[in-house]
Amino acid sequence: MKNIKTYLLYSLLMATIAFNACTAPKRTIASRIRPSQYRSNFNNDSTEYWSLIFKDQKLKQLIDTALANNVDLKNALEQIEVANAYYQMSKGAFYPTLQANAGVIPSNQSFKDYSPIGTYANFTSSWELDIWGKLKERKASAKARMLATSEGIRLVKTTLASEIAKAYFELQLYDQELEIMERNIRLQTIAFEMVKVQKMAGRATNLAVLQFEAQRLNSQTQLHKIKRQIITTESFLNLLLNRSPRTIAVEKRPSTSDVLFNIEQGISTDLLTNRPDILAAALQAQAAGFDVEAARKAFYPSLVISANVGLLASSPDLLFNAASLTWGVINNLTLPIFQNRQLTFNLKIKEAERKQALLNYQFAYMKGVSEVQCCISKIKSLNSEIEMLENEVKVLESAEANSHDLFAYGYANYLEVINAQKNIRDAEIELIRTKNERSQRFVDLYRSLGGTRQ
């Protein structure tokens, strides 16, 4: 009779499990997005290839200082600790819990006549067996999110390095503009002194003297504006480096000609798999897929093994007696049947979040393709502009030199000299600004490719 009852109970339990499994939502295959050329070493940050793209030692020193001191980066690094803690928590779900308990067993008497009928002290432990892989899915989700956070840190580093490089190239631009202005002021001073001598000799008017003087004052005004821009840019750079204001030395000429990318041949879109934002989006999509699987498996029964060992006695004096020892083991099979549809709606939420994560991944990838193509197009166009401007500067240099000679011998008037000086100054400034713009676009390309090399 005992065997028959056991068999009937077991059959009823299996029928209930089968019914619940049939009514649970159908399995949704989670998307396992695994970009090609996925980096396995997260200790290598996105700035490690900077020396292979730009060879400017002073720039690299600034970047290294910023990576060590920047406040935003330090705050972002704390997110790694948070994500890692969640991951360790998910791993802990595979291990049993252990608790210590102590107390008294109350009687059914009134509070006035209250007296306990027993005293106990024991240890209780429980362990959920991951028979369906639910805990494994949650662990995989936490790990993917931890790695996505690591990519977020790499994005912060890439952005920081890019901002420093752009400001550094701005300082190089201002230094070159200073050189041009100082050289033009010297030439304008020579012309001004020359026209004063000519006025004294009756060969020039006071209007010519005033025009040369006004031109020189204008150049001196521009010189002070450039110095003010240098101070502003240095303050911005020192803020990124988290240090007190100070002068920042730069190389005289940008080193972007050493960039390793062959712009004319284009760049493979495979390099986009190194972008931290794309990798983070892919990992978030993976995590969302694991969440869907965990939500689906929540419909199946959970098997929990509980155990306890301790002491139980009618009075505290007898608690530590050998006869007070008690222990037990319970196998608890929990089957969710009616839970106010919480499991169903939780699954729908996770599936919607997975779709959102996939859309975010697709958008991140298309954004990366667009940014790279835009950078390459701009660099190619700027290369053509620079070539034309260099030819223009050569022509204007000859014109400016000839204007001084002709003016000295009376074959050209002062307006021609003033225009020649102004034209060469404007052309030289336009040339270095265009080169600076190209350097800025190289930085954008570096950031668009995730800070990695071809």
Give an overview of the whole structure.
The chain is of the alpha+beta class and 454 residues long. The protein has two domains: 28-94 and 131-300 and 341-448, Outer membrane efflux proteins (OEP) (Up-down Bundle); 97-129 and 302-335, Outer membrane efflux proteins (OEP) (Single Sheet). Helices cover 63% and strands 9% of the residues. It has nine helices and four strands. Strands 1-2-3-4 form a four-stranded antiparallel beta sheet, with no helix packed on it. The longest helix has 67 residues, at 134-200. The N and C termini lie far apart (77 Å). The model is unreliable at 1-49 (pLDDT under 50).
Number of domains: 2
- Rg is 38 Å
Low-confidence stretches: 1-49
Which sheet architecture does the biggest sheet show?
4 strands, antiparallel
Rounded mean pLDDT is 75
Structural class: alpha+beta
The residue fraction in helices comes out at 55-70%
Percent strand: 5-15%
Number of strands: 4
Distance between the termini: 77 Å
CATH superfamily of the largest domain: Outer membrane efflux proteins (OEP)
What CATH architecture label of the largest domain applies? Up-down Bundle
- Could you state the order of secondary-structure elements as H and E? HHHHEEHHHEEHH
Q: Could you say what the CATH topology of the largest domain is called?
A: Outer membrane efflux proteins (OEP)
